[in-house]
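TICKET: design request
STATUS: open
ATTACHED STRUCTURE:
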């Protein structure tokens, strides 16, 4: 009887040890996708997202435009698109009187005030719509959204259209230029053929300087610069 009990105890301890060993063995644990994963998927689908905070320019009223300039080797730069966003600070005085109360409620304008901040942020989305065209979408949260086409160029000797974005470095507005100035935001450029190794490249600086002295610009055959323009409202 005692022998049977001892055997049973040893068997239980053995099974417990096996179970404990199984519990400690490594295993894959499912986790939720992270924001980085979403960005990686979007970029794999040729979709790029940029967002800019413009609150520091609410110190005065500016007329705001988004410009898209096109650069191509052997040709003079040209403006491809200009998108008028309106004033960054809006006034109820320009709204017909019968609609002012509705605007006050929609824009959450307190009684006793006639102005509201219209352009506080700007988002830019770049997306391939087909092989030879991308779409640049401009989104001002709570105000407007619009898109313009960007015609692409194929890589030399290939029929593929390969484009990548590069953000610009930002610098303070120079003294005396506060009334009218432009700020480049994003470069969207074509990859190029490395003839020595017969491969397609897009390598160089991760950010572009506003003076356009980046070495990568010597290699990119075709690109767009998307920027924002501020012009002081003369009515102030």
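STATUS: resolved
RESOLUTION: sequence designed for all positions
ATTACHED SEQUENCE:
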């Amino acid at each position: 009887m005692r022998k049977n009990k001892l055997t049973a105890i040893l068997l239980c301890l053995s099974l417990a040890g096996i179970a404990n060993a199984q519990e400690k063995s490594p295993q894959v644990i499912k986790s939720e996708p992270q924001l980085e994963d979403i960005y990686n998927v979007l970029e794999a689908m040729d979709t790029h997202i940029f967002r800019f905070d413009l609150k520091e320019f609410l110190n005065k009223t500016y007329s705001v435009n988004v410009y898209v300039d096109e650069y191509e080797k052997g040709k003079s730069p040209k403006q491809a698109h200009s998108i008028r966003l309106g004033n960054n600070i809006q006034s109820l005085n320009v709204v017909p009187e019968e609609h002012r109360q509705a605007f006050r409620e929609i824009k959450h304008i307190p009684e006793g005030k006639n102005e509201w901040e219209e352009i506080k942020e700007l988002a830019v989305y770049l997306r391939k719509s087909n092989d030879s065209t991308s779409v640049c979408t401009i989104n001002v949260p709570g105000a407007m959204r619009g898109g313009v086409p960007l015609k692409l160029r194929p890589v030399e000797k290939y029929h593929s259209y390969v484009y990548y974005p590069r953000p610009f470095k930002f610098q303070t507005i120079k003294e005396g230029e506060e009334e009218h100035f432009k700020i480049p935001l994003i470069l969207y450029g074509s990859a190029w053929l490395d003839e020595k190794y017969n491969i397609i490249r897009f390598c160089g600086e991760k950010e572009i300087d506003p003076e356009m002295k980046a070495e990568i610009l010597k290699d990119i055959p075709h690109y767009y610069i998307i920027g924002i323009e501020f012009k002081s409202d003369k009515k102030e």
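CLOSING REMARK: Helices lie at 2-24, 35-44, 100-106. The two ends are 103 Å apart (CA to CA).
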